[in-house]
What we know:
Layout: H1 2-9, H2 21-25, H3 27-33, H4 53-65, H5 73-86, E1 94-96, H6 98-109, E2 111-114, E3 117-122, E4 125-131, H7 136-139, E5 147-151, E6 154-155, H8 161-168, E7 175-181, E8 188-193, E9 195-198, E10 202-206, E11 212-217, H9 224-236, E12 242-246, H10 255-263, E13 274-276, E14 282-283, E15 285-286, E16 292-293, E17 308-312, H11 319-329, E18 333-337, E19 345-351, E20 357-366, E21 382-383, H12 388-392, H13 397-410
Parallel strand pairs: 11-12, 12-17, 17-18, 18-21
Antiparallel strand pairs: 1-20, 2-9, 3-4, 4-5, 5-6, 5-7, 7-8, 10-11, 13-14, 13-20, 15-16, 19-20
Helix pairs in contact: 10-11
Amino acid sequence: MVRGILRVVLITLVAVFLIGGAYIGGFGVSRLIFAPTALPDGGAPAEWQANFPVFWEAWNYVHQDFYKAEIDDSALVNGAVSGMVDSLGDPHTLFIDAKRAAISQSQMQGSFEGIGATVEMREGRLTIVAPIKDSPAEKAGLRPDDVVLQVDDKIIQNMDINEAVSLIRGPKGTTVRLKIQRARQVPFDVSIVRDTIKTTSVEARLIEGTNLGYVELSQFSATVPEDLDDALQALMAQNVKGLILDLRGNPGGFLSVTIDVASQFLSPGQQVVVIKDKNGNENPCPDDIGRPVKCTTKPGGRATSMPIVVLIDKGSASASEIVAAALQDHGRAKLVGVKTFGKGSVQNDHSLSDGSELNVTIAHFFSPKGHEINDVGVAPDVQVELTEDDIVNRRDLQLDKAIELLKAQVGTTSLLVR
């Protein structure tokens, strides 16, 4: 029965157990006490015997020799798949077990319980991409590029990213203590009370005292296309003359949503992103139900000719970088802020039979003019950095500069006084 299950799940496994230090350390002693029952083919299914006997040998020895009476085969499978995926050395190619996959899906669809921060594992260090607006993480002062060294009393360096995230998340009202490394400062502890994190992704308003509209996207979730269209329609009804699109702290989301967002600001048929596979071949984009389509804008955009300024920062990643780079390349917008995060890879998300997920990097994306984004980021046209004093005193000089630039374009006569 076990082998029947593994025929499906473990079709590409390599000999993960060979790297187990504990196994190597105890090898000699175990051979003196227990004589193993060797199987000539390792127990591998016939169609895999040429390439996979080592895994099946290890599987059988574990079940035969391991001193605990009960072995959780599901845990072995998850660990084996995780080891296989980790060996690829790509932080975005991930195996997510069923429990954690359900948590991840809830974040993109509505709400979840935790501290409210998007993270990425970089060189074995859990790095904050961006805290979600108004989340406990933001209120506690976490910032993009902060590194989480420890969760409560557990050191998480080189830990699987999903395991690390599961330690940070938890029920509303409970407290988690994080040890944070910020640039070259001395590491410090932050205690954060978890809460329900609502993932409303679009906020829009008229900037007080001006005829300028402000739209903030916190992520590229499934509800964004409709919510953004409604927000722009409401702003147009107030006769706005220019728009500020705020992508700061936006960690990305669905690629299909990226096309919908860009279509609101670019003319129909313009290139949004160039996707290239490992052989340099250009790939299509997915539509909202996963069918391959051109990576170009759709008709019907509400702000295709209105002056725009885009705000970006270190927390702008992935889909945010695609939109920012597209508007920059097509001359539709000036970018204000600091260089973006630099996450320029595309993943295929596969739902596995037990509810787990496998995210596999299939390509890198580039701006319409072919500029690399992965590990490079998107540079602003106007560099405006926020100092420690600005952050503490809630001065938004980046937004002020965006208002100034739009004022010069549209002739608005009054500015927001701060």
